[in-house]
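pinging the channel bc i need a second pair of eyes. not urgent but kinda urgent?? the chain im working w is below, pasted from the shared doc
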Amino acid sequence: MGQGSRGSGLVAAGVGWGVAIGVALGTLLIAPAVNGTLDQGPFTRGAAGTTSSANEDANGAAAQDAARQAQAANELLAEASTRLVAGALEGVPVTIIRTADSADEDAAAVRWLANAAGATKAGSLTLTEKFFDQNSADELSSIIANTLPAGAQLSVENRSPGTHAGQSLAAALAQDPATGEGYASAADRDLVLDALAAAGFVEVDAPVEPAGAIIVVAGEATEGFAGQALQDFAAALRERADAVLATRGQAPDANAVGEVDAEAGRIRAVLSAGEQHSARG
């Protein structure tokens, strides 16, 4: 598919996405909003506790109703998902990178939806718990430095292991948009992945080829060293690759996609990958 037709597909998908996400987000946010308002309202304390009890019952019923609406919206998006993403990744090789805490169903759903968007498979790999373990940071940095693909550069200003790992894997895994070929040679790509796998940092789940887009599927965003390393890794990937970080729950930053455990988040992750690829190409 040409650039113009792919762009038209993305516009059409974006219109449908805008309508559907409004429905989904509206229902998903009802329950927390109702809980917060009622719990803090003027009727939380009755003289004999009866008003509070009645209020709790009403609050629970409202939350259950909101949950049912959210489920209905999720089912609606599931039914429309293939139409919403159609053509967004037409002919684009997509690599799925999972974190150790990601859910099988999330990774499988994102892969399926990327395929429905026209993507081809460019392999998948899992980043183990060791990859984000502070105690293993020096070992990871050493492997990255010693297996750096030809032409790749590591930041001298930001030396965090997540940043350097992202820069290395972007060079090893991504396509050069100018040529359609991998930035790295097959030998360099294998060297990076084999070294990381041998040290227990990654598991290669399916043969990896140069990717036009990379989607990182993660569990819920966390704080501390591991959470920051994941954000650094995703940011570094985006320097040279069309890469999207998709997490469960709330996204950790404005560049990531949240709610990957729901249809809305999965659709947005695929559309975001397509938009990045279209813009870069």
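so Residues 1-13, 27-48 have pLDDT under 50 and may be disordered. and The two ends are 13 Å apart (CA to CA). — does that match what u expected or am i reading it wrong
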